[in-house]
Amino acid sequence: MLDYDAVVIGGGPAGLTAGLHLSRAGHRALLLEREVFGGALKHVELLERDAGAISGARLASDLAEEAARCGLRLREAAVTGVEAFSSTRWVALEDGRGFSTAVVIVASGSRPRRLGIPGEDRLVGRGVIDCVPCDGGFFAGRRVAVCGSDDHALADALHLAGLAAGVTVLARSPELRAGPALRSGRSPIPGSWSGAARTSGRSSDRTASRG
Ligand SMILES: Cc1cc2nc3c(=O)[nH]c(=O)nc-3n(C[C@H](O)[C@H](O)[C@H](O)COP(=O)(O)OP(=O)(O)OC[C@H]3O[C@@H](n4cnc5c(N)ncnc54)[C@H](O)[C@@H]3O)c2cc1C
């Protein structure tokens, strides 16, 4: 008999949701996470939902708790390989052990998209960052710019506005792409956007401040 009906690789929102539904449907499922359950969601200060705003960390732990209650086995372990046989899959772990399963769901996340501009690769980690909750503290008291105007970018800009000397949001169009609460400055992350967007060619900029 196989160890599990399904093994989910990755404990971010995608993996936790897949594992939750598998377990709820009565399947024997195991979820493997190499770092922190919740994945990138753990770094999200605030998520806007119909049911009201919630922090990413809170949503992640709610998801993990609900999945565990439904019977999902959650285990901290790094997956190093997957092998496919005719009716079995083998999921190998870093410590040399592994699990047999009928189905493997890979929910291991993604890498940040790069802008693809000159100097970017050279300066990643030396002034160019892609995780504000992780690295924003290095820019306390400095002037910073955030590229983009979606939820992610504006939440990052407001986060930085709480510690940097100034934050400029650089966007392709004068319209901000984030949801209404973040756009209007009415979100539970305190902060506001000053002035109309100054537009030049295909780009525009705004300033974020936090009060
Ligand atoms: C600062 C920030 C703000 C954001 N704001 C928002 C927002 O406001 N609204 C919104 O909808 N989204 C937001 N996002 C995006 C959202 O967090 C991601 O879209 C979401 O987390 C992706 O989920 P995922 O499960 O696909 O991947 P991830 O969350 O990346 O999870 C993948 C998991 O897989 C694990 N993993 C990878 N490889 C292995 C392996 N070999 N073995 C075991 N485990 C492995 C990783 O450790 C990770 O925990 C934001 C993200 C960040 C960083």
Mind explaining what this structure looks like?
With 211 residues, the chain is an alpha/beta fold. The protein has 2 domains: 4-106, FAD/NAD(P)-binding domain (3-Layer(bba) Sandwich), CATH 3.50.50; 120-209, 3-Layer(bba) Sandwich (FAD/NAD(P)-binding domain). Helix content is 24%, strand content 29%. The protein is built from 6 helices and 10 strands. The strands form 2 sheets. It has a 6-stranded mixed beta sheet with strand order 3-2-1-6-5-4, with helices on one face. It has a 4-stranded mixed beta sheet with strand order 7-8-10-9. Strand 2 (29-33), helix 2 (56-69) and strand 3 (73-76) form a beta-alpha-beta unit. The longest helix is centred in the N-terminal third of the chain and has 14 residues, at 56-69. The termini are far apart. The model is unreliable at 195-201 (pLDDT under 50). The structure holds flavin-adenine dinucleotide. Residues 9-15, 32-35, 39-41, 43-44, 47, 78-79, 107-109, 131-133, 151-152, 155-156 line the site of flavin-adenine dinucleotide (FAD). Residues 9-15, 32-35, 39-41, 43-44, 47, 78-79, 107-109, 131-133, 151-152, 155-156 line the site of flavin-adenine dinucleotide.
List keywords for this structure.
211 residues, alpha/beta, FAD/NAD(P)-binding domain, six-stranded mixed β-sheet, four-stranded mixed β-sheet, 6 helices, 10 strands, 24% helix, 29% strand, elongated, binds flavin-adenine dinucleotide
